[in-house]
């Protein structure tokens, strides 16, 4: 029985790209809501550091796991390791993503294009297929994709990334149908958040755009938490195949 105020008590949540940025905030929020957590990212040190913080501040179990989300076989090994450690997986967040810059569309290399698709689309497809199938057999779960407003407002400077994230929106609808009724699949369509990626922004250009947004600013990483907890927990029990904008209104700029 869930304890009051702990909607994820007894659950296990895996977050890719979980050691920093939006992923870090979701890991801490899930642990604070009662879940044991798996922190997956390419660099083991960052995962281990956050896992220790989770254990110290929340008392929850935390498994750090170094993996590249584009590694097809590596994802299978990770899911097996999670089941061996916890015996279950209730929440998956496909948060890992990359958006490398390039000088022009003509100069986008095949290697860059493939890398962007690999991390933002191929990896989430494989991980959702693996985890969703196991969740369905086990009786249910929640899968959360982290997309981008670029998927509906692409620009010349982010076209491969935007296309991959648009594909992720499509996967959300497809997997919701494939794994229902017991597994819910939804998407957080994120706008501009002040994470590590924002360090490379031209802030003057960004602020010109932000001034036209209804909320007039970028988001702080912790502001993704409400949507993540909603999709992960029982409050969204009648919600699947949904794409929720968490973007300060960027998608409605005209």
TrEMBL record:
It holds the Pfam family adh_short_C2. It comes from the Bacteria. Keywords: Oxidoreductase. InterPro entries: KR_dom, NAD(P)-bd_dom_sf, Sc_DH/Rdtase_CS, SDR_fam. CDD domains: SDR_c. Residues 11-197 form the Ketoreductase domain. Belongs to the short-chain dehydrogenases/reductases (SDR) family. This is SDR family oxidoreductase. It comes from Actinomadura vinacea.
